[in-house]
Amino acid sequence: MKTFKKIKLILLIAVPVSLIGSSCVTTNKISNVTGALLWSENCIRCHNAPSPTDFTDIQWGKIGMHMKVRANLTDDETKKIVEFLQSAN
Amino acid sequence: MKTVLSLLLFFALGLTQAVAQDTSKVKVPEKSALSGFFLTGNGFINFEKSGSSGFSLVHTSLSPILLWKISNNLFFESELELSLEDGKTTADLGYATLHYVFNKYLILGGGKFLSPFGTFQERLHPAWVNKFSEAPLGFSHDGIIVGPMAEVGFEVRGGSPLGNSKINYVAYVSNGPAISSNPSDPMMGGMLESGKFKDNNNDKAVGARIGFLPFSNSSMEIGVSWQNAYVGEKGDSIYGKAKVAMHAIDFSYTKGIEKLKGIVEIKSQLNNVLLDKGNNQMVEMSSKNSYDVRQAWYSQISFRPGMHENKIIRNLEFACRYSVLELPQGNQNAGRSNQISFGINYWYNWSSVIKLAYQVTQIKGKENEGLFLIQLAVCDRKTGKKKISKKPIENI
Known about the structure:
The complex is a heterodimer. By secondary structure, chain A is mainly α.
């Protein structure tokens, strides 16, 4: 029962905060989102977003594959983010 | 066993089909298709001060990471953890995994990998990612850990859009955790160790995590994880039939809020481990319960005013974390322990940070322990280029 109480506590705090914060979100279809936006939205889920100039084109290709595995990014997201980082480098 | 065989068969069939697909493709060179090695890594130095003593260097670590893109579908990654703590130097293989991108929605992997049990171990534990210099209670591989840290085995994973939402998954078969079988060591008291290269019994651990991101901007993720495993050594008189059922729920929310001129981040995870000791005679004679439950959870909130006009202020980050660890009788620090931490971080650039924190840990039957912590953490980046902190963060 203790476990369920804690789960409820976490959800009771976190879900309303998130819903309020996301209430102004425009529901872009993911397929229409640009690589630049995906870069800014997905990197910050775990860490600060790096600048495109922080790594070379070749390195971004490898980092993209690493992040696809580590963060379970979709194939489309990974391709768009890597293309953006390489084009803005 | 059927599950293990099914997954292995699935893995083998997947590889066969994918190799067949590859040979039929006409490959067009792309920028990202260039293969080869990429050596990167991260490191940190920890200082701490307790009571009237001065600051002491307590832990320093360097973790070189090798990313090897063998082809557009084949990828190898590994991390070596070199660490000096309490005067003891250790070298450990954090992970070494070969991945095969089978298709858009399926990646196959094998080797040693960070446990996808929740998100802390897999995504948030590196020093330059973690908001604090220490892991929450029950999540640190340097201390008592509730839940697995790493797996040695095979995994399948992927992510997919689901309308305006997203879903991701990981399922794996691994050697699983092993239980300490030395009853004369009260400090261990049936502690579980994960990431073992040698399976101590014939039963593989099976686990999975499913993550759901309800919003198109990926701001929120809710994950549910599970793992079942036999943990005792085959034939062991005490824990021979012992098994664990582990469950976790994780939550993440990260959003830039213009009114606050910054990014708010909330992270939380609850790990629950139910150990069934097998109800054998030895356990009954020692008057211990046949079941015990270990639990650890944390909630953390942080704020970085990254859109503020002032350069110093926008590189600051404020964080607060509360964590709880509950252990059954017979373990070191049995009972409930809790910890609260307050921190201020300053980001020199996107991957280099200095962290200052004060944390109070309360362990049942002991005096509260207050600790000042300082950490310098860095992750590899190309030098000599513009820093991300030169202008406010936009479009978040």
